[in-house]
Design brief:
Elements (H helix, E strand, L loop, with lengths): L2 H11 L3 E5 L5 E4 L1 H7 L3 H4 L14 H8 L3 E9 L2 E11 L5 E10 L1 H27 L13 H14 L5 E4 L6 H10 L8 E5 L8 H6 E2 L12 E2 L1 H4 L4 E5 L6 H13 L1 E2 L8 E2 L3 E6 L3 H6 L5 H7 L2 E4 L10 H16 L5 E2 L1 H9 L5 H15 L4 E2 L1 H8 L3 H4 L1 H6 L2 H19 L4 H8 L3 H10 L6
Parallel strand pairs: 6-13, 6-14, 7-10, 10-13, 15-16
Antiparallel strand pairs: 1-2, 1-5, 3-4, 4-5, 8-9, 11-12
Helix pairs in contact: 6-7, 13-15, 19-20, 20-21
GO molecular function: ATP binding; sequence-specific DNA binding
InterPro entries: AAA+_ATPase (IPR003593), AAA_lid_NorR (IPR058031), Homeodomain-like_sf (IPR009057), HTH_Fis (IPR002197), P-loop_NTPase (IPR027417), PAS (IPR000014), PAS-like_dom_sf (IPR035965), Sigma_54_int (IPR002078)
Keywords: ATP-binding, DNA-binding, Nucleotide-binding, Transcription, Transcription regulation
């Protein structure tokens, strides 16, 4: 089999743009992903100087060609509408003569735009919530539904925290409502008119962390916005920065965040003077940070800076008396959203909902109530229909089937469920899911095919 055919097929199949230029800057290779990323066909660009299509200052390839130094995981902006993460290196022949440069560009434009849209939407929502609170006899903590002692204890602590600027750490399992609690603390504080900037530390590619959190000065690197750009920390000036999944913050960024907390000053990339800040920090995690400290994955000095006040969000298992109220609240919410009648839950259904362990907590209950609203017939749903349509008590119903499985089958079943959970959590982002699973993207793709997981 001709190895060139194999190599060409591999390069054509790769999702990332792959570009090769010669020492005279003429393009030698331009794969299909490069066509998709930069909307320039191979017939137009191959054999021509790449500088005919891009400005010199926007080409990281020229920097590598000039310095003969490789670049790893560098955030780059070759065009106004394109954000990429680049790995680039010089190419040498057997005589150690430079014969070109290769660049592999991963398009992260959608991630950057999504972050910007989320920030804009968050600001608009904050303003809308502020107006609602002014017109209704509600408090910011009204969204934390439930009357259980466990939740009320959390709300009492959160109210006290809101009256101060103390750095706060919110602990709790995934799906317990940590961001809702952080938003309530902000809305009840003296900073309510300032911005509330949420940052999911588990959803930002590591190469983008520094520019996203700290921003950069103009002219800092090739492709940067000409006027520079403020990071999320700077955008929160006068308000609150919410760092969700703080345990996912890379060690390098932990050092920089600690400096901000100590000095109340943020340093953009390329800035040696820094900018004075007035930001309230709230962090949240579902991980055991003390364990991460012992494993040298989380800095102890940062932990103690964040853990001034600790707020614990109880799991749904610890507040089962709130389940009927929460279920009905979500049913009414989705019935209004989809313009459908509010389904009635039979008493037997309520009993079983309370008995269920809810590993996904409120998020899992909310998703179930949405499905019930859409699929319920005759205005109500009984237990038989619930188990038939939603498989709620999977662990109880399938107990015998799981017991009869071989160890290998049970392992594969657990693997499949874990992959599905992470793909749902990160909106189908396979790179992030693979990172959380501790496997490569290639391995994840193989397992998706093996388990016939629908990723659409």
């Amino acid at each position: 089999m001709n190895k060139n055919y194999i190599l060409n097929t591999i390069l054509a199949t790769e999702d990332d743009a792959i570009v090769v230029i010669a020492p005279d800057c003429k393009v030698l290779f331009w794969n299909d992903a490069a066509v998709q990323t930069y909307t320039i066909h191979q017939d137009e660009i191959i054999g021509k100087p790449i500088t005919d299509f891009f400005k010199d200052e926007d080409l990281l390839l020229l920097y590598v060609l000039k310095t003969k130094q490789p670049v790893k995981n560098a955030y780059h902006r070759p065009r106004e509408d394109k954000h990429v993460v680049i790995n680039s290196a010089p190419i040498y022949n057997d005589n150690n003569e430079l014969i070109g440069v290769v660049s592999i560009d991963r398009d992260v434009s959608n991630i950057v735009r999504l972050n910007e849209n989320l920030l804009s939407t968050s600001t608009e929502l904050n303003e809308l919530k502020r107006k609602i609170y002014m017109n209704k006899e509600e408090t910011p903590f009204s969204k934390m539904k439930g009357r259980s002692p466990a939740l009320q204890k959390t709300i009492r602590i959160a109210r006290k925290v809101a009256s101060t600027d103390a750095t706060t750490l919110i602990l709790g399992e995934s799906g317990t409502g940590k961001e809702i609690c952080a938003q309530a603390i902000h809305d009840a504080s003296a900073r309510r008119d300032g911005p509330f900037i949420p940052v999911n530390c588990g959803a930002i590619p590591e190469a983008l962390f520094e520019s996203e959190l700290f921003g950069y000065e103009r002219g800092t690197f090739t492709g940067a916005e000409k006027q520079g750009r403020a990071g999320k920390i700077e955008m929160a000036d006068g308000g609150t920065l919410f760092l969700d999944e703080i345990g996912e913050l890379p060690k390098k960024m932990q050092v920089k965040l600690l400096r901000v907390l100590q000095e109340n000053r943020v340093f953009r990339i390329g800035d040696s003077k820094g900018r004075r800040l007035n930001v309230r920090f709230i962090a949240a995690t579902n991980q055991d940070l003390e364990k991460l400290m012992n494993e040298n994955k989380f800095r102890s000095d940062l932990y103690y800076r964040l853990d001034v006040i600790q707020v614990k969000m109880p799991s749904l298992r610890e507040r089962t008396e709130d389940i009927p109220e929460l279920a009905n609240y979500f049913l009414k919410q989705f019935a209004a959203q989809y313009q459908m009648p509010v389904p009635l839950l039979k008493e037997e259904v309520i009993t079983q909902l309370v008995a269920y362990k809810w590993p996904g907590n409120i998020r899992e209950l909310r998703n179930l109530m949405e499905r019930i609203t859409v699929l319920a017939e005759n205005g109500y749903i009984n237990w038989e229909e619930l188990t038939q349509h939603f498989n709620l008590l999977r662990k109880k119903v399938e107990q015998k089937r799981i017991t009869d499985m071989s160890l290998l089958q049970e392992k594969e079943e657990l693997e499949k469920e874990r992959i599905i959970q992470l793909l749902e959590k990160y909106n189908g982002n396979k790179s992030v899911a693979a990172k959380k699973l501790g496997i490569s993207r290639v391995t994840l793709y193989k397992k998706i095919q093996q388990f016939k997981i629908n990723t659409r």
